[in-house]
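It is worth pausing here to work through a concrete case rather than discussing structure prediction in the abstract. The textbook approach is simple: state the sequence, then state the predicted structure, then interpret. We follow exactly that order.
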Amino acid sequence: MITLLALASTFIAQPEPAAEDLLGTWDVALYFSPDAPPSVTVMEITAVNEDGTLAGAFYQSGFESGRYTRRGEDWVITVITSDGSGPYATSGRLGPDGVFEGQTLSTGRDFLMAWTAERRD
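Step two, the predicted structure:
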C-alpha cells in the first residue's frame, strides 16, 4: 500500500542545480601517489559567467582560461593554469553530494594527479 507521504515525496520538485553552486573556496586533497597521504591546497572560484566561463585560482595560480557546463545534476569544469614549469590542465566534476572529483595534468612536470575537494565552511 502506498502511503500519502511516500506518494507526495515523489512529486516534490528538487531544486535545479545552479552555476552559483561552483562559487567559493574549496579545500583540495591532492593525490600525488596512490601510496601516500594527500597534500592540501585551495581552489577558489570567484565568478561563473553566463557565457560558460569561470574566474578563480587553483594552487595559487589564476585561471588563464576556465569553462563550465552542466551534465545532468553534475557541474563539470576545466581550467588552465601555469607556473614556471608550464601549463596545467585541471578538470573536475561537482556532484549533487557537494564533492568535486577531478584530475590535473602537468605537461611541464610530467604528471597526472587525482584530487577531491569540498567547500570550505
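Step three, interpretation. Residues 25-119 form a domain with the Lipocalin fold (CATH 2.40.128). The beta strands are 24-31, 39-48, 54-58, 61-62, 65-71, 74-83, 86-94, 99-106, 111-119.
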